[in-house]
Amino acid sequence: MILMKALGRMALLGALMLLAGLEGCRDKRLTTNTQQYRDAHGIYDGRINKIAVGPSVFTLPPEALFDVYTEGEILRDRAGKLTLYFDVNRLREATPSGWASTKYGESVVRVEISSRSSGPLWKHARPSLDKGAPQPLLDLTLIPGVKPPPTKYSDQYLYVGRNPGIALAEDEYFEFACQVAWPAEVAKRNGQCRVAYSADAGILVEHFFQERELKNWKAILEAVSIRISQYESQH
């Protein structure tokens, strides 16, 4: 009987220790977009930072605005995804040619760089071009039949365009997916477009920008490509 009680106490103690260990592990999980999370990645605010994504290393100046994300174990100076934020007006100042005039104020281009398998990203874009409706003002082709029916409050658009000469991109064609709110009301209309391409060394580059800037997509991709190449060439 005494032995049974002793074994029972040992089992209870073991269970409590296991729970405590699990709780401790839970406490060690860092919350994204916090200073602790950035510290764990070896990021120093106000200084030059080097972040590796896949086989590429990006040297970011002190003024660069960026976030990092890693799924699983966090390693210093490395991230699963690097997110850069560019002010459209500053991009326009750096590459003035090719920008259409706009009456809107500031907007931000968000660029997410992550690792992926190499090879072209959009192999099906050329057949889509043959079925689409050309949009001369955008130099894009609107692809029909790939979205749910529009409503008063939202609509979606898919465009395809030929790579205008972005040296960083391996893909011959780009796809633009745009989600728009209040599509029929000029004063309220707003939305976001996403375009992605595969770059050398197995890197995926995704751009997110305001739908009103779609007419400037060539200038945006060119300016971002130049900036990313500068970051990557400095290591």
Q: How is this fold's topology laid out?
A:
Elements: H1 2-28, H2 35-40, E1 49-53, E2 56-60, E3 65-69, E4 81-87, H3 88-94, E5 108-115, H4 125-131, E6 133-135, E7 140-142, E8 154-162, E9 173-181, E10 190-199, E11 203-210, H5 217-233
Helix pairs in contact: 3-5
Explain what the structure shows.
- The chain has helices at residues 2-28, 35-40, 88-94, 125-131, 217-233, and strands spanning 49-53, 56-60, 65-69, 81-87, 108-115, 133-135, 140-142, 154-162, 173-181, 190-199, 203-210.
- The protein is an alpha+beta fold and 235 residues long.
- It is 27% helix and 31% strand.
- Mean pLDDT is 80; it is low at 2-7, 15-20 and 22-27.
- The protein folds into two domains: 1-30; 81-233, no CATH class.
- It has five helices and eleven strands.
- The chain is globular, with a radius of gyration of 24 Å.
- Count all strands and give the number: 11
Helix amount, in percent? 25-40%
H/E series:
HHEEEEHEHEEEEEEH
Question: Largest beta sheet: what is the strand line-up?
Answer: 3-4-5-11-10-9-8-7-6
Helical segment count = 5
Total count of domains = 2
Largest sheet: 9 strands, antiparallel
User: Which overall shape is indicated by the principal axes computed on the Cα atoms?
Assistant: globular
Low-confidence stretches: 2-7, 15-20, 22-27
What percent of residues are in strands?
25-35%
Cα distance spanning the termini? 70 Å
- Briefly note the structural class of the backbone: alpha+beta
Gyration radius over CA: 24 Å
Give the averaged pLDDT, no decimals.
Answer: 80
